[in-house]
């Protein structure tokens, strides 16, 4: 185990930030990503900025770009999905209200949703299904993502400045643990998808 930790400590100092960026892309781009701690990852990026000597503007830029990339992936998946049309009952009425809010105030809803866990994944899909134009979605989401990333990363740097430096081994174990979590979430999603495909009877319409 010690040899493994030393190997990770020898990796470039941006490795942890790269893992955090991957977490943010998955969190906002895939439904399974709702299980990931996106806000905590952004705070951890601020901590890395202090303890690994990474430039603050660079860290904010990476965090913003990662969550924006995930949101755009989510928007694209929502545009190519017919899931909302299959919803019935109360959930369908609720979706109708959400769609109405997105159509009336798309900029506000999309921007604010970036700051709330869970809705970072769902709102881009809902916006696409509600017919919000890609241009308006892009402007609102970028504004919300920039503000969200800036506040959380700066908060992370403040917290890191107030506590003593942590054991250097954590520079390796924390990114490693987060990377394993991302891999597990993606593997579970892949297994469930394959089981769903196998469960479809032969000859049944796709």
TrEMBL record:
Domain VTT: 36-157
Pfam families tied to this protein: VTT_dom (PF09335)
Ranges that cross the membrane: 54-76, 142-164, 170-188
InterPro entries in the cross-refs: DedA-like, VTT_dom
Annotated localization: Cell membrane
Membrane topology, from the record: Multi-pass membrane protein
Keywords tagged on the record: Cell membrane, Membrane, Transmembrane, Transmembrane helix
UniProt GO cellular component terms: plasma membrane
Domain of life: Bacteria
Family in the record: Belongs to the DedA family.
Stored PANTHER family: INNER MEMBRANE PROTEIN DEDA-RELATED, TRANSMEMBRANE PROTEIN
The protein's name in its UniProt record: Membrane-associated protein
Native source organism of the sequence: Klenkia marina
Higher taxonomy: Bacteria, Bacillati, Actinomycetota, Actinomycetes, Geodermatophilales
């Amino acid at each position: 185990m010690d040899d493994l930790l030393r190997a990770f400590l020898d990796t470039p100092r941006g490795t942890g930030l790269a893992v955090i960026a991957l977490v943010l892309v998955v969190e906002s781009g895939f439904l399974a990503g709702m299980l990931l701690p996106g806000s905590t990852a952004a705070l951890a990026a601020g901590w890395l900025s202090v303890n690994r000597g990474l430039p603050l503007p660079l860290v904010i830029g990476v965090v913003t770009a990662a969550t924006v990339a995930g949101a755009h992936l989510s928007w694209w998946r929502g545009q190519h999905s017919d899931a909302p049309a299959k919803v019935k009952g109360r959930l369908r009425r609720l979706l109708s209200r959400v769609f109405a809010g997105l159509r009336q105030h798309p900029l506000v809803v999309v921007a604010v949703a970036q700051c709330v866990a869970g809705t970072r994944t769902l709102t881009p899909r809902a916006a696409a299904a509600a017919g919000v134009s890609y241009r308006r979605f892009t402007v609102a989401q970028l504004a919300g993502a920039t503000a969200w990333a800036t506040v959380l990363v700066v908060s992370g740097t403040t917290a890191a400045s107030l506590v003593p430096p942590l054991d250097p081994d954590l520079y390796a174990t924390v990114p490693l643990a987060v990377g394993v979590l991302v891999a597990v979430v993606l593997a579970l999603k892949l297994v469930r998808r394959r089981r769903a495909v196998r469960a479809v009877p032969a000859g049944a319409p796709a």
